[in-house]
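cron nightly-structures :: item 1 of 1
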Amino acid sequence: MAIVAALACAFCGCGAGAAPSATGTSSDPVPAYVTEPFTHEQRLIEQGAPLIVADGCAACHLLASAARGLAPSFSSFAGHRVRLADGRSVLVDERFVREGLLHPRANELAGYDPAPMLAALARLHLDEQPRQVQALAAFIEQVGPEPE
C-alpha cells in the first residue's frame, strides 16, 4: 500500500504546486507539508517514483510479482537485513541500494536469480546516470520501514 501511495503522490505532484492559502493564518486547514517546497530528498523520491515504472523495476519488485519470488518487494526490502549470496547479512539502506544499482554483482541476494536484474541494469546504463541512481535509491529506500 505504501508503494501505491508514494507513486500516487509522485505522479500527482502531491503538494508540489499547491499555493499557500490567501489568509496565511496558522489555523488554515491545509497542513504546511502540503504547501511547503519539497526538500532535496523529497525531490529525489518524487523523481524516483516514475523511474520505477518507466525503467521496468515495478514489474519484478511490486508486491504481486515479489510474492512469486522473482525479486524482493520494495515494501519489505528497505530497512530490513538481507542475506547475500556470499553469506553476509546487510541492512538495506539507501547506500546499499545505490551500490547495488551501480555494482549489482558485488552484493547479489541469496535466493534470487541475479540474471534478470543484471540484464535490466545493463540495459539502463545507470553508471552513466548518477542522478537517476540517486532518485531510484531514494525512492526504494523510503518505501520500506524505518531501520530498527
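cron nightly-structures :: done
The chain has eight helices and two strands.
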